[in-house]
Amino acid sequence: MQVEIRKADLQDLDALKIIEDTCFPEAEAATLESLSERLQLFPESFLVVEVEGVLVGFVNGAVIDEPIIRDAHYHDAALHNPDGAYQSVFGLDVSPNHRRQGIAEKLLTALIDAARQAGRKGLTLCCKEEKIPYYEKFGLVNSGKSSSTHGNAVWYDMILHFEEKRIEKMDLKIILASQSPRRSELLSLSTKDFAVQVADIDEKAIEERILAEAGQEKFLDTATELVETLAREKASVIHHENREAMVIGSDTVVVLDEKILGKPVDEADAYAMLRALAGKTHSVLTGVSILWGEKEETFASETKVSFFDWDDRMEAEVKAYVASGKPMDKAGAYGIQEEAALWVSGIEGDYNTIVGFPVALVDKAIHRLLTEAQTEK
User: Fold this and answer.
1) Exposure of 248 by Cβ count < 10 A (0-12 exposed, 13-18 middle, 19+ buried)?
2) Are 363 and 310 in contact (CB under 8 A)?
3) Is 47's pLDDT higher than 70?
4) pLDDT tens per residue across span 100-122
5) Which residues, other chains included, contact 340 with Cβ-Cβ below 8 Å and sequence gap of 6+?
6) Where are the domains of the chain?
7) Does domain 3-162 sit in CATH 3.30.70.2470?
8) Torsion of CA 252, 256, 259, 264, to 10 degrees
9) HEC profile for the chain?
10) Catalytic pick from 12, 251, 350, 363?
11) At 31, is the pLDDT very low, low, confident or very high (cuts 50, 70, 90)?
12) At which residues is there a site annotated Important for substrate specificity (predicted)?
C-alpha cells in the first residue's frame, strides 16, 4: 500500500468536504467555507494522506497561543497565530473504507513531528470520551472536560507538552505564590510539579502608593504598573525564603472608566461592581512576575470584556450570584468561568487573562528562563 502525506491545497477541497461529512455529524462538521479558509490561512498545518494516489484522510488545526482550544478557534480561523505556542487539531479524518489501517496514526504523527520542528510548545485537541485511550497512545494527557460546546457535544481537552520534561531534568522547584485554585489549575497545564505558598503583602497600600505617584500617563499604564508591582511583590516575599526556587507571582485587576475594581469588600460592593460593568467594555489586567535566582520575567496581559445591557433577568442572576459568595475573591466581582459567562457579549484578547493567569505567556516565559540558564552553562 503506497501511502503519501503532503500539505493540502485548494484543489483538494471537494474531496476534503466529502470525507469531513462522513466523519462528523452535521452539527460538528466543518463547512466548505470553513475548510477553504483554513486551507488558505494555515496550509502548513493542513495535511492530507493519499493511498495509491487517492485522497483518503486529512488532519488540520490552527496554531494558537494557549494549550486549550476554545469554540472561537473553530469558528474563526483568523485566530490562527503563526508564532503561537501550541499546534491544535481541529479534525483527524479518515474515510470509512480506509480506517483501522494505521492511516490516522501516520497523519497525527506527521503533524506532531511538524509541530516539534516548528518549535511549538505542544499539541492540543478536543475529543469525545471514548477516544481518550486512543490519543493517550501518542502521549496526550486528558485534562478533563472541555468548556467547548461545539456541536452540542461533550468534549475532553487532550494536551501534549513537548518541553515539559525539560523542567523535570533540571530538578527545578517551582512555587506559585498564589492561593487561587484557578491559577493552580492553569499552571498545571504547563507543569504538574509545583508547590503553592501564599505571599502576605499589603495590596491596598501598594495600590494607594502607585496611584498617588502616577503622573500624566494613561490610566491603563498606571493600572499595568500596579498589577506588575503586585505580582513582583508577591513573588519577592516567597523568593526571599526560597532562593533556589522559581517563584511565580500574579495579580489581576479590572479597569472600568479609569477606576480600578479589585475584590469586593462586601455583597453590596459586589453588586455595585457588576451593575457598573453592564452595558460597557472594561479591561482585565493580569500581571505576572517570575523570579529565579537573579533572573526576572515580569509582564502584564490585557483582555477587553464587554457585558450585555442591564435588564430584569440580569439583575435577578446577579443577585443570586452575589448571594452565592462566588464574587468575593475575584477582581471585578466576577469569574468568567462561572455564571458571569451569561452576561459577557464579547472578549478581545486571551481568555485566561480574565480567569487570572495567562498560562501561554507564563509557559513561554518559564522556558525562556530555562533556555537562558542552559545556554549560560
Assistant:
1) buried
2) no
3) yes
4) 889 999 999 999 999 998 989 99
5) 274, 321, 334
6) 3-162, 165-376
7) no
8) -60
9) CCEEEEECCHHHHHHHHHHHHHHCCCCCCCCHHHHHHHHHHCHHHEEEEEECCEEEEEEECCEECCCCCCHHHHHCHHHCCCCCCEEEECEEEECHHHCCCCHHHHHHHHHHHHHHHCCCCEEEEEECHHHHHHHHCCCCEEEEECCCCHHHCCCEEEEEECCHHHHHHCCCCEEECCCCHHHHHHHCCCCCCCEECCCCCCHHHHHHHHHHHCCCCCHHHHHHHHHHHHHHHHHHHHHHHCCCCEEEEEEEEEEECCEEECCCCCHHHHHHHHHHHCCCEEEEEEEEEEEECCEEEEEEEEEEEEECCCCHHHHHHHHHHHHHCHHHHCHHHCCCCCHHHHHEEEEECCHHHHHCCCHHHHHHHHHHHHHHHHHHC
10) 251
11) very high
12) 182, 252, 337
Cβ-based neighbour number of residue 313 at 10 Å: 11
Q: Cβ contacts of residue 179 below 8 Å, gap of 6+?
A: 196, 198
354-372 pLDDT, tens digit each: 999 999 999 999 988 988 8
pLDDT at 165 over 70: no
Q: Which CATH fold topology does 165-376 show?
A: Maf protein (3.90.950)
d(CA 125, CA 160): 9
The one-letter code for the residue type at 116 is R
Residue 251 annotated to the active site: yes
- The single residue listed with the C-alpha cell 469558528 is 75
Paired sense of beta strands 195-196 and 174-176, if any: parallel
pTM: 0.57
